Amino acid sequence: LCRSPCDASVEKERTLAMIKPDGVFGNYTDKIKEVILESGFSIITEMVVQLDEGNATVFYVEHSHRDFFPGLVKYMTSGPVYIMVLEKVNAISDWRALIGPTDARKARISHPSSIRAMCGLDSEMNCVHGSDSPQSAAREISFFFGEMPGGIVRHEEL
Ligand code: UDP
Fold first, then answer.
1. Of all protein residues, whose CA lies closest to atom 1 belonging to ligand 1?
2. Residues within a 6 A CB radius of ligand 1
3. What confidence score (pLDDT) does residue 79 get?
4. Which active-site residues does the annotation give?
5. Measured CA angle at 28 (ends 23, 127), to 5 deg
6. What is the number of the ligand 1 atom nearest to the C-alpha of 99?
7. Number of CB atoms found within 10 A of residue 85's CB
């Protein structure tokens, strides 16, 4: 029964994955990449970036009214982040499932094999990021690899 409309559901999707400063400082990058590859994702491109206050503010602008925002910007600019574009069928929701809930303390209880359970600390320092929808994935990939105002300008383009 599965004719051409079904083919759309097996199309590959891309998402933006980030190892946050605590993950990079904690030397989790290689382990996380291993989990990514074992879980069937391809890493399409990767780079290390130091966010500044302006970049971090634009990236997390949807949270700019929250009281945790100043702490979040400070955390996200505290060191380099490791950026990857991941690809697979269902990449967006599968990567979210693999990283686990936002609060790493809760992740350790409800999703003990998740990445945040492995290397996150709490609801702020949670080690990794993943786009939460196709719209965010498109926006975040273009933030790091496109020409978004307030986004990242790669060195070779300077
Ligand atoms: N965050 C925080 N305090 C909170 C909730 C979130 O510092 O109470 C930080 C945390 O680093 C989180 C980011 O803000 O990953 C974005 O929050 P969101 O709710 O979008 O969670 P995520 O999509 O990253 O799971």
1. 124
2. 63, 68, 71-72, 102, 123-124, 126, 129, 132
3. 98
4. 129
5. 25
6. 25
7. 21
Q: Residues comprising the binding site?
A: 20, 68, 96, 102, 116, 126
Residue 130 belongs to what H/E stretch?
A: strand 128-130
User: What pLDDT score does 153 carry?
Assistant: 84
Q: Which of 59, 72, 98 to mutate to test ligand 1, by most ligand atoms within 8 A of the CB atom?
A: 72
Instruction: Report mean pLDDT in 10-residue bins for the chain, 158 residues.
Output: 62 97 98 98 97 97 98 98 98 98 98 98 98 98 92 69
Nearest to 80 by CA among 126, 22, 37, 3: 22
CB-based contact 32:19 (threshold 8 Å): yes
pLDDT tens readout for residues 94-117: 999 999 999 999 999 999 999 999
In the numeric block, which tokens belong to residue 12? 């590959």
How many A from CA of 102 to the centre of ligand 1?
Answer: 6
pLDDT of residue 95: 98
